[in-house]
Design brief:
Elements: H1 3-29, H2 33-40, H3 50-58, E1 63-65, E2 68-71, H4 74-82, E3 86-88, H5 97-105, H6 125-136, H7 139-144, H8 146-158, E4 165-167, H9 168-173, H10 175-185, H11 192-202, H12 212-238, H13 244-255, H14 260-291, H15 293-301, H16 306-316, E5 322-327, E6 331-333, E7 336-338, E8 343-347, H17 348-351, H18 387-404, E9 405-410, E10 415-416, E11 425-427, E12 429-434, H19 442-448
Parallel strand pairs: 2-8
Antiparallel strand pairs: 1-2, 3-5, 4-12, 5-8, 6-7, 9-12, 10-11
Helix pairs in contact: 1-2, 1-5, 6-13, 8-10, 8-18, 10-14, 11-12, 11-14, 12-14, 14-18, 16-18
Keywords: Heme, Iron, Metal-binding, Monooxygenase, Oxidoreductase
Protein name: Cytochrome P450
InterPro entries: Cyt_P450, Cyt_P450_B, Cyt_P450_CS, Cyt_P450_sf
């Protein structure tokens, strides 16, 4: 890396992580809500964060913190995420030293949380990107993937040994979504291990306050994925397939709607949002069903409840803890004045436990009638394009696991992922046993003996 590029990387880290991280640590020592949640999220489960989120709720729909507001209120979160007066990401003011430094050091390569990623752009660009991507990633197209997802799940489960310890995250939760995403992106079999490795390394890109070493690992992974994507897009242009990304490339080339950088950003977002969050959804679901065996038995007795169970998992332990917005102009959120430039931290996990919306919100209940009212997929114009895909993968993945194995016992040694924003499990040691239906019938055993 050239010296200038190294300097720019250092500035990016300082502005995006070093300075915010220091502010959060100072804020945490002072008892500031945002500082505390940033600090605690690294080592506490979502359930263990609930007392802190309760303190924030006690401060009203929109609580103050040093740089703006923080909310766990369902209405306030929804209104913030849907408001035209706030935008995604954080922008330093024009004309300031930090603003000039930020523009000078801006990263040219792939980054799922920076423009032109759908997560970071606003209208009119956001409208153009989303309209085009939506034409390809339709609910109908996702449903066509269901059969292939079932095949992938069955193949992965075939490889899991019964009655021997296995890490379910490594053997199943991580591999299922990466195989599905590989199908969407048209990734050849020989490159899927690379996509899995890069997706894992890039996951902390959604976090704030990364240490320097982790930040470099994330950017190196993004650079490697960017380079691979360039070759992959050229291959899809010359040899288009039936995958959804080939369709997006074809539509973009025909209508000159997305340039190369925008296509790469879309692919990066599909990987980051479609892979990482689904790994967490599957792992969180397994953990919750292990902790609530009565709910698992209900699913075994009434398998039609699986779709609602997935939404209850998403509500109770969402794959994404929080997201941030910045006011683009003076405005109001649930009647509270918000000044231009102020930040609003929306804690999705808190909104999902709002007692005004959900009865007995700290109870995990797959029969909950309004489980789908959760905000785990955001709201408004940034509502997750992959929500249908995530729900389908969660349903197929968890149902296939418990249909195959009558016994799924988690063992000691499980560790949470070290990320703050993305919430899930790094490993889930378990011992599994075949379902009774998979064993020989009693009369067969008798005849053989």
């Amino acid at each position: 890396m050239r010296p200038t590029d190294q300097m720019k990387r250092g500035v990016r880290w300082g502005l995006g992580h070093g300075l915010p991280g220091r502010l959060m640590r100072v804020a945490a020592r002072r008892g500031d809500f945002q500082g505390r949640i940033t600090s605690d999220a690294e080592h506490l489960s979502t359930q263990e964060l609930m007392p802190l989120l309760g303190e924030i709720r006690d401060q009203g729909p929109l609580a103050r913190w040093r740089l703006g507001h923080i909310t766990v209120d369902h209405e306030a979160v929804r209104e913030t995420l849907s408001s035209n007066d706030v935008h995604a990401g954080f922008v330093f003011e024009d004309g300031t030293v930090l603003g000039r430094l930020g523009r000078w050091a801006k990263r040219d390569g792939l980054n799922p949380v920076e423009a032109p990623s759908l997560l970071a752009v606003e209208p009119p660009d956001h409208t153009r990107y989303r309209k085009l991507v939506t034409r390809v990633f339709t609910a109908r197209a996702v449903e066509k993937l269901r059969g292939r997802t079932e095949e992938i799940a069955a193949d992965l489960l075939d490889r899991i040994p019964a009655d021997r310890p296995v890490d379910l995250v490594e053997a199943y939760c991580a591999k299922l979504p990466v195989e599905v995403i590989a199908e969407i992106l048209g990734v050849p079999a020989e490159d899927r291990g690379l996509v899995l490795r890069l997706g894992t390394l890039a996951a902390p890109s959604l976090d704030m306050g990364l240490r320097w070493r982790r930040f470099r690992e994330v950017e190196d992974a993004l650079d490697e994925f960017d380079a691979w994507l360039g070759g992959h897009l050229n291959h899809l242009r010359e040899h288009p397939g039936d995958d959804l990304f080939s369709q997006l490339v074809r539509v973009s080339d025909d209508e000159a709607q997305l340039n190369e950088r925008e296509l790469k950003a879309t692919a990066g977002l599909v990987l980051a949002a479609g892979f990482e969050t689904t790994v967490n959804l599957l792992g969180n679901g397994i953990r919750l069903l292990d902790e609530h065996p009565d709910q698992l038995q209900l699913l075994r007795d009434e398998p039609d409840r699986w779709p609602n169970a997935i939404d209850e998992v998403l509500r109770y332990d969402p794959p994404v803890l929080l997201t941030g917005r910045q006011a683009g102009r003076d405005t109001e959120i649930v009647g509270t004045p918000v000044k231009q430039g102020e930040l609003i931290v929306t804690v999705l996990a808190g909104a999902n436990r709002d007692p005004k919306i959900f009865d007995d919100p700290h109870r995990f209940d797959i029969r909950r009638e309004n489980a789908r009212d959760h905000l785990s997929f955001s709201a408004g114009r940034h509502y997750c394009l992959g929500s249908a895909l995530a729900r389908m993968e969660g349903e197929v993945g968890l149902r296939a696991l418990y249909d195959r194995f009558g016994v799924v016992d988690l063992l000691p040694g499980a560790k949470r992922r070290p990320t703050r924003v993305l919430r899930g499990w790094d490993n889930l040691p378990a011992r599994v046993g075949l379902a009774a239906a998979s064993s020989p019938a009693p009369e067969t055993v008798s005849a053989a003996s």
